[in-house]
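Action item from last week, closing it out:
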Amino acid sequence: MKNSKIKAGIVGGAGYTGGETLRLLLLHPQVELVFVHSKSQAGKPITSVHHDCLGLTDLKFTDKISRNIDVLFLCLGHGESKKWLAANDSQLNADTRIIDLSQDFRHTANSTFEKRKFIYGLPELNSKLIRKADNIANPGCFATCIQLGLLPLAANSQIHSEIHVSATTGSTGAGQSLSETSHFSWRQNNLSPYKIFEHQHLKEIAQSLEQLKPTLLVRINFVPYRGSFTRGILATMYLESHLAEAQIIKMYQEYYESHPFVHIAPFDVDLKQVVNTNNCFLQVIKKNDKVVIISAIDNLLKGASGQAVQNMNLMFGIDETTGLKLKPSAF
């Protein structure tokens, strides 16, 4: 694919992840966006929903599927991707690759759909498998943020105690559908924990840590929060460690040396450093007998659509960062 453009389609293009995916693909130098599917918006210009795309495209939403694509992004709600494939997979060419942004195929037990085998698409864990994959299950946003904070410890057999995690996400993490907790009057100037110790992304996180350390049986105490902002996730993790801070930082630097979007920060990390980028910033601190890891990502980019495009780049053998050199909102 290095000398010809990748033909891409999107299903579920009216929502947050669909909108972010189409924005990235419209500006990707090696992609031709063939269609953007949406039942609710079919026939309407993309710019009637995504106003910021004015001047970027004249495409309209469609309720039809074109077979003439190399890759299809499924930007549907949880449980909907499997239903969509059951109804529509026969309309796709057999060699069309799929990148699914729902949770339908993330877990090993559910990673096969008929003849399609989905690889868990966390590049910092599975880049070799992703390069050979035909189908990708894109990770969840909390799962991405937290896993990136813990992978080097698991890879070096340095998890010996319970892990404590608190993480706050912006309102876009809940999707575009209206709910009481996404309403402006509830969310603004507010902070709320939810799904304490029971968040669905815990299964993903445990699965990846066990992939690196199969004998690892450790409890992850995860408290998620709804934040009073729209984009981003900031996670704080801590666990016991006998290593010195410099040793741990070196371990993180070596693990992520070949991964262009994860950076070990020599300063205090905050969300504005990563929002609107595909980056993850990690800060590593040793306090007494505890190592503290702070991880920050944009939930819609590194936590969803940006990571999906990163996976596409790997699958088609082009530079991993293509179309993803994005400017942060620094202030």
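Closing note: The mean pLDDT is 93.
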